[in-house]
Amino acid sequence: MVNFLAPALAAALLGTASATLVARQTAASTTSTGAPTAVTDCAVTSSTQICKAGTTEFRILSTPSSALPSSYTGCHLHATETYCFYNGQRGEVLIEAANAPAATAVTTTAAAVTGAPTAVSDCHLHGVTVFCMWGTSEYQVMTTPTNTAADAIPTALTDCHAHGTDTYCISPSGDDVQIVAEGAEASDTDTTGEEPQGENCHFHAGVEHCVGAGESESGGTRSCEKVTRDYNIPLRVGLLFVILVTSAFGVYFPIFMINWMPTKTHVVFLVLKQFGTGIIISTAFVHLYTHAQLMFANECLGELGYEGTTSGIVMAGIFLSFLVEYIGKRFVMSKVAANPGTVSRLSPETVTVLVLECGIIFHSILIGITLVVAGDTFFLTLFVVILFHQMFEGIALGTRIAQLGQRSPTEKTNHPTASEIEQTTSPTPDSLNSLKAPSFSLVKKLILASPFALVTPIGMAIGIGVLQQFNGNDRNTIIAIGTLDAVSAGILVWVGVVEMWAEDWMHGDAELLRTSPLVTFFAGFGLIAGMIIMSVLGKWA
Question: pTM higher than 0.85 for the full model?
Answer without folding.
Answer: no
